[in-house]
From TrEMBL:
A single BP term in Gene Ontology: amino acid transport
Species this protein is from: Streptomyces purpureus
Protein name: Branched-chain amino acid ABC transporter permease
Localization per record: Cell membrane
GO CC terms, sorted: plasma membrane
Amino acid sequence: MIKFAETVLNGLALGSVYALIALGFVVIFKASGVMNFAHGSLLLFGGYVTARLHDAIGFIPAVLVGAALAAALAGLVQLLATRGLRGAEIHTLTILTIGVDVLLSTELNRQVGADYLTMGDPWGADVTRLGSITVADARMASIVVAVVVIGAFFAAFRWSRWGLSMRSAAADPEAAALMGIRLDRVRLIAWCVAGALAAVAAVFLAAFPAPGLDRTTSQIALSAFPAAILGGMDSAVGALVGSLVIGLTAAMAAGYQNELSVLGAGFADVAPYLVMVLVLLVRPTGLFGSKELTRV
């Protein structure tokens, strides 16, 4: 029972970090219809900035600067790449983000090198005992921070002018443009928000029990991709629910890998994708995705 409780807590912590990443995928898709495959590089960039600056300016300021610069880089990608191909097909823009990811990841891998970069987080390797349950402080912090950040995101999405414009543009871009909503600005802000969320997620992906930030950290963003697909690419709530499901699935598969050894040693790596496929077989648009209606 203790192992089960610890595994659930680890799954919730992992799911909360995945939620930050998955929301980035969803908010860009809702704003521009583009599947941003450069998201992992934005995550690595934000984490890299935080790792390099925390000794000089402190942890929290470094995280804020990392989030701001990741947001600026995401906005620059949107301005130079997607807006430069105005009128292009959505799949063309999506493929373009793959090229952007290759360029960014190549340079970031060169900068990071073969070392593990510490994030300077105040939790370090500390753990807390809750009765008989032991949980890393970094895991608990990830849950708290994710709740605060995601809560602020949903509040802005629900009540801010940008959130209203975002929802209007996602529902009917042509009608929104006719009503005076500047779609380019909405899309730019969406990309910036996604970049900032990715930078915050990078901090906890590199925190204990992980050894630190390295070149493979950006690949973890792909682990959050099933969460966005599972919940529905046009649903922010779906991204949150899908992330918790994927996080719990990954934690359970890793925690009970000995009991699941009959399924193969690498089952924990494929379990989230298996869940995604099973759900999509029943609901092709995801748990909360909108069904496309065609009038004939």
